[in-house]
Amino acid sequence: MALRLGMCKALTVEVLTKLHTAGIVSAAEFVSRDLESLSKELHIPYKDLCSIQRVSLAENSAYPVSALALYQNALSSLAILSTGSDVLDQLLDGGLYTGEVTELAGDTVSGKTRICHWCAASTVKEGCNSVLYIDICKSFTVGILMDTMSEEAPDPQVIQSRLSRVKFLQVFDLFQLFSALEEVELCLSQQEQTPSDWKSLKLVVIENLPLLIYPNMTSSAPYNQGTLSRLGIKLKQLADSLSIAILVTNHLVGFYGQDKSDQRKAALGKVWSQVPHTRVILNRRSCGLSNFPSSSEVEAKLVKSGRQQTPCSATFCLSNGGPVCQTSKT
Amino acid sequence: MEYPCEISYGKAITTLPLNPTGLGKLLCAGLNTVPCFASLNQSILNLGTGISVKEAEQILKILCQDVKLSFHKFEQLSNIKSAMDLHLEEQKVEHIVTFCEALDSMLDGGIPLGEVTEFCGAPGTGKSQFCLQLAVNACIPKCIGGVEGETVYIDTEGSFIIDRLVDIARSAVAHCHQVSVTQGRHGQSQCDLTMEKILESIHCLYCNGYKELMAIILLLQKILSQNQKIKLVVVDNLASLFRQNLNDMNLRRLLLATLAKTLLKIAADFNVAVVLTNQMTTKIIPREGNSHLIPAIGDTWAHVQTNKVVLSVDCHGDRSALLYKASNKKETRLPFEINNDGIRDFIHSYTQVRQPP
Description:
The complex is a heterodimer. Helix content of chain A is 41%, strand content 18%. Chain A is α/β, with parallel strands linked by helices.
């Protein structure tokens, strides 16, 4: 935090300029100085400096919350959103937890987009939940949602109301993503003014995250890491404060190793790998372009989780329409 | 400068598009949220952070813009579309036909406007032929179901062969007249398509090297906003430039990501179809002991396109197209043919004709 006018009565223009000329601009710097010597050096009354210090400490410190309050809060606001596939739900110990960031990583055509659509479709099934779907590509397909929904709700009016609660936003860079997230936060925190179909936002899907981040990657590693951890903090904060589940899709990078020890891992590096609470890697025997068609079986491997044992994998089928699942957990 | 504090309550400045050095200096000075800048002007900023006055002015401008944006309540959120709106819009999406009916119906009517479609294939599988055919077909008049638009054709390896284009255009004109006659009430042709018109509507850009390509792509936004008639952007061949003279993999990733972002943005903003071609490369999986042919230029690029069609030729010379990636469509393989007229459906009787004498 910077020292600024109006923070405290003692912090007048004159005092501020004096502090600036002594090279003190932030509250942190001010607090860490010895006030007595500062008072002598800059000819500012000691009492004034004390009151400035008191204000800046009070303004910047956190206040304690009891664990009991946190627990009660969690009980009242926690929801577990189904992914729409029994196998995946079982793998994730129920589904997507609100307040957490879940990541799906996989190669192209490994079924990431489809799973995201299933999650969206099953989230809007309940109550008046709504979903925000953010992507850089135009991968959002209403057809998948309709197919999934029409399996169990043949009433067109029900489908219509569900569809209208899934929102799609196409963003083209990281800053646009940040400002969209900021708006969501602001919009939901002002309760009276929130438009009704945003009120129970339960799931935010962010697809193709690396494509949003790579254009902002400069050659300076600290800046890149800063960007990634800032995004991580933002997502976690959003998930926690608004009690929504965040689902992110990521790519895979690396080489194929000998035997079973593939070096394929989720993109965006070590810093990002700390961010998601749960990470699932999807693996599909896709044909590439050999002569046989791709198998419709996808292996989902849980590699990071706070609840389940890892690594742990399950296989499910990608089909047109709703998920047809053969449970096989290993 | 007065900022309405409650609007941008504590928004971190790190989420704004400021340059990294300036950002670093601001953060060192403890100015980490937007409200911190209330009642600051460039000279105080200069004194407090060591940022030059000019730079300080730019920073304040960006901040000011942001505050203004948040003033227009939830600008992004209120423009958001729900799946229902998109479903209604989906029926209105226009397509550019390929003249291969099987392929058109596989893609729900042709190459969709507003999306990025990629054709991949080994040399000689017909990628450039598809591009030429699409460039011609983009100007089929609206009265017989075309999009009646112009084309920007970016050629990187000299595959824009004008004689071939003329051939394709000539038979396309004939085909359109025939369709128009059968559709028309008086047995007269309603369509005024001529070969000159087709050739006039194709703007060819030749580029040599990835720097030129990047420059052209970044300029496209301007070109498209000046000429609203453009409905198709073709890049043939995207991969060739990035597979040579570019050893720095980080740079390649950065360039490709910027390219992807720009092309996606253009496709969405101007509602044009973007068609790219890509080469193939070999991926070796030691565990399985064999290798696969996969589209080139990396794993990240593979995620960019909405639709991907892989073209191949088998040992008998039969061509086939595989719809490899498309949301909500099954992976399908179907035969097609390239003859004098361009891309056409594969007709079975041809196989008998082609028997050796």
